[in-house]
Write a structure and sequence with these properties.
Layout: H1 8-20, E1 23-24, H2 25-36, H3 40-52, E2 56-59, E3 62-65, H4 69-85, H5 89-99, H6 104-114
Antiparallel strand pairs: 1-3, 2-3
Length: 116
Amino acid sequence: METPKIFESEYRFCLILWREEPISSAELAKKCREELGWSRTTTYTVIRRLSDRGVVKNENGLVTSLVSKEQVQRAQMDEMMEKTFEGSVPAFLAAFAKREELTEEQVTEIRRIIGR
C-alpha cells in the first residue's frame, strides 16, 4: 500500500497525533490550538481530510494514526529523492556532504548505516 501524501501543515498535525495517540478529537483540537494556533474547526477539518485519505482513524471521537511517522518520512524522502536528485543516492549524498562540514561522529554514523 502506498503511503498517502501528507502536506506540511498536516505533517505538523501528525507529529502531535503520533506523540499523543490515542487521543480524543477534543483534546487533539486543544493541543493543535496550543501548538499550531489552529481553531477547533480547522483541526476537525484536518482530521476529516486525513481520515478520508486513510492517514488517520476517528472512531467515536478517538483519533489514531493509520500510518507511522517512519512511513511518512520514507515516502517524503522517496519523493524528494526522485524529484530533486532523479533517484540518485550518490547525488543526494554529495549534495548533503557539501552543504556543511560533517563531524567525525556523523561520518561514523553514516558509515554504520550504509554498512548494513
